[in-house]
Amino acid sequence: MNVKPARQPRSIDWDQIKRQLAAAEEALAGGYAASAAQRREILRERARVLAQEPAPVASAGPGIEVVEFMLGNERYAIEAAFVGEVLPLKDLTGVPCTPAFVSGIINVHGRILSVIDLKRFFELPEGGLTDLNKVIILQHGDVEFGIVADRIVGASWLSLAELQVDFPTVTGARAACLRGVTPQRVVVLDAKRLLTDATMVVDEEVSP
After folding, report:
1. Cα–Cα distance for residue pair 42/20, rounded to 1 Å
2. Mean pLDDT in runs of 10 for the chain (208 residues)?
3. Tell me, what's the pLDDT at 197?
4. Selection from 68, 62, 97, 84 nearest residue 206 by Cα
5. Torsion sign over Cα 196, 202, 207, 208
6. Given this model, what pLDDT does residue 174 score?
7. CA distances (Å), 114 to each of 5, 98, 160, 169, in order?
């Protein structure tokens, strides 16, 4: 059996493409007497160029995939390997005799899970909970609970080498759960520390 070698990706000259696009834009804007066919060809070329995007450049060194979300005006991220799913915040039931940072409990596919308000846990300014909030379900071993997010930004890849890890001005619970901050000022949380923090475990018997 003859096996053809894999085709190598063709190198794209992005400077040339930009020049082609600029020429097409100049031709359209110049008002010269182009035929209908010429104008269609220029528009097709512009669409073709704009549709091409450079291939993502892999970051050097180890990295992690994260889920980014907003808490107030700050962007946070948590490692996707510890995220089970993301759900709308609804049917939240308050539980008495629990810490203030425990917003309540929810039913997730028949499992009763605690929901943690990180704003309260980190002593950040609070904004209240609405139906627009999301719950990020975190899992590690037998431990599972949700954390409240104001908004989900999306998933991304972070290079661990780029994380700034020394923050002498950050203290308390947030310092203990902080993995680092990216150059874009995304606060990366340590999911494993959150999930193994004894204060996060709510052991309450809830009556049906």
Report:
1. 10
2. 45 57 55 55 56 48 92 92 94 90 94 93 77 91 94 93 76 74 92 84 50
3. 82
4. 97
5. negative
6. 64
7. 54, 10, 30, 30
Two structure tokens written together for 2: 């003859």
Taking the model in full, what pTM does it have? Answer: 0.66
Residue written as token pair 């037998």: 142
With both helix axes pointing from N to C terminus, report the angle between 36-51 and 14-30 in degrees, rounded to the nearest 10. Answer: 150
Strands 151-159 and 63-71: antiparallel
**188: number of Cβ within 10 Å:** 23
Q: What is the pLDDT of residue 126?
A: 76
Print the SS3 string covering 39-104. Answer: HHHHHHHHHHHHHCCCCCCCCCCCEEEEEEEEECCEEEEEEHHHEEEEEECCCCECCCCCCCCEEE
Instruction: Indicate the helix (H) or strand (E) that contains 156.
Output: strand 151-159
